[in-house]
Amino acid sequence: MAIISRGFAGRRSAADAKLPPGQYLTTDFPVLSAGPTPRISLDKWEFTIDDGSNVVKRWNWKSFRELPTENITVDLHCVTRWSKLGTHWEGVSLDTLLADVKTDAEYVLVHSYGDYTTNLPLDDLLDGQAWIAFRFDDDDLAPEHGGPARLLVPHLYLWKSAKWVRGITLMHEDKPGFWESLGYHNYGDPWREQRYSGDE
Amino acid sequence: MWRVGTVVALHDETATARTITLSLPDWQGHVAGQHVDVRLTAPDGYSAVRSYSIASAANSEKQIEITVERLPNGEVSPYLTQELAVGDQVELRGPIGRWFVWRTDQREPIQLIAGGSGIVPLMAMIRSRVATRSTPAFRLLYSVRAPEAIFYRDDLQTLASEDSSVVVNYAYTRTVPKDWPRLPGRIDKDLILSATWPPSVSATFYICGPTGFVESVADLLNTGGNRRENIRTERFGPTGERK
Predict the structure, then answer these.
(1) Integer Cα distance of A86 and B115 in angstroms
(2) How confident is the model over B93-122, as a mean pLDDT?
(3) Which of A93, A108, B27, B174 has a 20 to 30 Å separation from B151 between CA atoms?
(4) Is residue A4 less than 8 Å (CB to CB) from chain B?
(5) A176 touches chain B (CB under 8 A)
(6) ipTM value
């Protein structure tokens, strides 16, 4: 039974219908990070896929940018309750990056410059659900938003879309990442409002 | 999982910020730096939730304080700062967060750097340290627009006069007090050098404020030789850079 706040009207808009439960709409682009923003020069940047012991794929910025790219328009949902609709990105699909990787791994741990990590099932990176994005709104991705490149996996809360992404490790057993070890939900589906550990 | 808190006291910190003391009979305690989610429900069932940092010390009391800054176009903060009355009830969830926290068993020197209402979780850390008579030396560098924008003024003044192991410095960005030795301005390299722990003491830094503030301070600390892993940040508010 909810407590009713007399005199509280709230602010509803037509767009609320499109929002996951407990989210509100913003037109701004807030920033959340656990520490300082790392600065990574493009000539040092690389992105790798490994199986826990060996690197099975490696790109530098030049070879990464030679891959086919996609233009993506998606809604973003942050666990801190803001949502931003219809954001425009350019990136390389994980389907492309994982195309000739043979694996029976079921999970991945995503690594970032600055040592951030996040975990998710491998299936959530496939079938047009995830990209390594390097442009936002027709500009190079700004460092505070994860540039040079970040993971974009918009069907999960935005902390899963690791900024400053550096590589992914394929895993047979799930292993919690940074926020997942600090009280946030292991999977993070905004439509099921999986914010904190203990949420169903 | 949602619990009911009853407002037992209200206190205006500034013209736009109010501290709300909530009584929570089944509260299990919190760690300094954690936040709660507050849910308001309208008579027709519509509800809105926002996160607010806890301002009170980590202790065993069955009540907490949150401080809410009224945002010009806010949905929840105008209600909490203007309509809410003593005796009203609100729903809340928490405490939440295990990263931007200070635990009373930490022994290293602590540097707190606040921008505006970013002081709230840092004040919980200072109060927790004072309450537990913990040993680490604390420093606070608090950036505010003007003297009248300072939260917890009395507590901070008392601290400055009574407890020499919590050192408080202010940076005024627009209006300085009479006879203040510095011109108004943002935290810069010189102020970091004069008012924060040097890298050699391996302090843990907690920086909280608007995004632009946190970005700028974290960069200054990082380029000043502090290790990334010693710098913890919490950001709020819009970037102000993109639409």
Answers:
(1) 31
(2) 95
(3) B27
(4) yes
(5) no
(6) 0.86
